[in-house]
Amino acid sequence: MRGLQAAHAEVDGVAEKLAYLEKREAHMQYPSYREQGWPIGSGSVESGNKVVMQARLKGAGMHWAPSHVNPLLSLRSAECNQRWEESWQQSSAHRRAQRLQTRVDRAEHRMCVIYRGLLWWRLRTRPPKPFKPARSLSAPQHTGPPRPASTHPWRRRFLAKK
Known about the structure:
It is built from six helices and no strands.
């Protein structure tokens, strides 16, 4: 590839494509994959998707709720891979944990409803507190007579004759 890049330097995009392949060189060890019996292409995965998933979910007249698809595919994959017992135990444990959590959530909700009802009842049935008017701290309380005395300077005439 590097030789082709040197020979055809005038072609646009060759350097970027070569950099892309160099980054992924560790993922493209096809001879060693074949020695280990691993599939090279994606055809087996696509075929498995068609045989396992589509055959079960896309039958005539079938409709699935989105929340039911993954659990069903999990069990279908377990059956096709001959790992039913192991998967069934895991699935059963997961369902038991979900049911327990649902019961705990419902119990907490019931306790909140009961607590709110008791709190409302307590607030409605307690005797009212006696009313005490608030004292104003900003203005002093007047304890003397309500009007000035007749000898007070405010009571004198403005232009009084002496």
